[in-house]
Amino acid sequence: MAFVARCEKVAFYGVSGASGEMTYKRMKNFSSLSMSKNPSEYSRKYVDEAFEQTDVTGYSPSISYTFDLDSENDVHKDIVSITDGEKIGSDAIRTIIVVDMTSTGATDGKKVAYKRDFAVIPDSEGDGTDAYTYSGTFKTKGVSTKIEVTVAEDGQSITLA
Asked: Are 159 and 132 in contact (CB under 8 A)?
């Protein structure tokens, strides 16, 4: 069995730079980053059968998050700006790319990843007595695209292929 550790599926968050270019930075210091697929189902029971049949008709993935606020972390700063600024609509849409660090892309040195836009849905802040925390959910805002990326040597950012 080839065991895959949780730390080998790494998420990167799109942060807009000063000149408007998109930089994908590692989502560090998150104590929770859990994906739910949230499938839509179509269930029915036919009169000539004793059981119900179910088909999956779609998905609406979401990622629950919690992080200990690091005032120097660009990803945290962006999520806090959405939360504290109560941003809505397109101002609260961000791209997240999940990279499988155990994968090998078609091109040498590349990793397989999945890119998707999410709406940042804040939930709570300040829970706990040790560190100031923020939590919420990233909810899908588009289709997932399989891509290849190059991970920086320090593992803190990626470049799209």
From this structure: no
Torsion from C-alpha of 153, 154, 156, 161, nearest 10 degrees: 0
The residue among 148, 142, 144, 134 whose CA lies nearest residue 31 is 134
Provide the H-helix boundaries in the chain.
74-84
Statement: the pTM of the whole predicted model exceeds 0.85: yes
| C-alpha radius of gyration, the chain, whole number | 18
- Token digits of residue 63: 């990622």
Confidence of residue 108 (pLDDT cuts 50, 70, 90): confident
Q: Which residues of 15-27 are buried (b: 16+ CB within 10 A; e: fewer)?
A: beeeeeeeebbbb
Cα(158)–Cα(149) distance, rounded to whole angstroms?
Answer: 6
Please provide the average confidence, as pLDDT, over all residues in the chain: 94
